Amino acid sequence: MVDRYEHPSSVALIGRIDRRGRLEWVLPKGHVEAGETPEEAAVREVSEETGLQSRVVTPVGDIDYWFVADNRRIHKTVHHFLLEATGGSLSTDDVEVSEVAWVPLDELAGRMRYASERRLARRLRELLPSVPGPGEESASAVPHSGRAAPKDVP
């Protein structure tokens, strides 16, 4: 997400502590609640995890993955959207978030923890032809996501 007024061409990322006690940088995301669209979930989760208000600009792509929890295989689909910051300021009020930072678009892929999210970050140049290269200035928006509810798989 880019704050077009204060941080042109920067992305709001959240830092979480992983199971090994290390800080990992990821896109804000969370569960789609009952009666909520993935787009509404993305806006709500970005607000909860970063302190920023935003609006959806366009879908960016989906990431599917599997993991095991409580001896069950769980499949998740994360729906990523391009969001534009419309207000608020960075905050770490969410208990799951250790840090929040504006990261320049050109540094995004190098900072992010997961390869699937790094691929989305690289795709932004295609989606945002107005995003400047190093040393240029422009206003634009960057992705955040809403996560679909997990599906138990026998």
Identify the notable features of this structure and list them briefly.
alpha+beta, four-stranded antiparallel β-sheet, three-stranded antiparallel β-sheet, 7 strands, disordered N terminus, disordered C terminus
What do these coordinates show?
This protein is an alpha+beta fold. It has helices at residues 38-50, 108-111, 115-127, and strands at 10-17, 23-26, 52-69, 72-88, 99-104, 142-147, 151-153. Strand 3 and strand 4 form a beta hairpin. The radius of gyration is 15 Å and the shape is globular.
Short description:
The protein is of the alpha+beta class and 154 residues long.
Secondary structure elements and their pairing?
Elements: E1 10-17, E2 23-26, H1 38-50, E3 52-69, E4 72-88, E5 99-104, H2 108-111, H3 115-127, E6 142-147, E7 151-153
Antiparallel strand pairs: 1-2, 1-5, 3-4, 4-6, 4-7
SSE ordering: EEHEEEHHEE
Gyration radius, in Å: 15 Å
Tell me, rounded to a whole number, the average pLDDT: 79
| Separate helix tally | 3
Strand content: 35-45%
Shape: globular
Largest sheet: 4 strands, antiparallel
**Would you report the number of β strands?**
7
Category by helix and strand content? alpha+beta
Overall helicity: 10-25%
Q: Show unreliable segments.
A: 1-5, 131-154
- End-to-end Cα distance: 37 Å
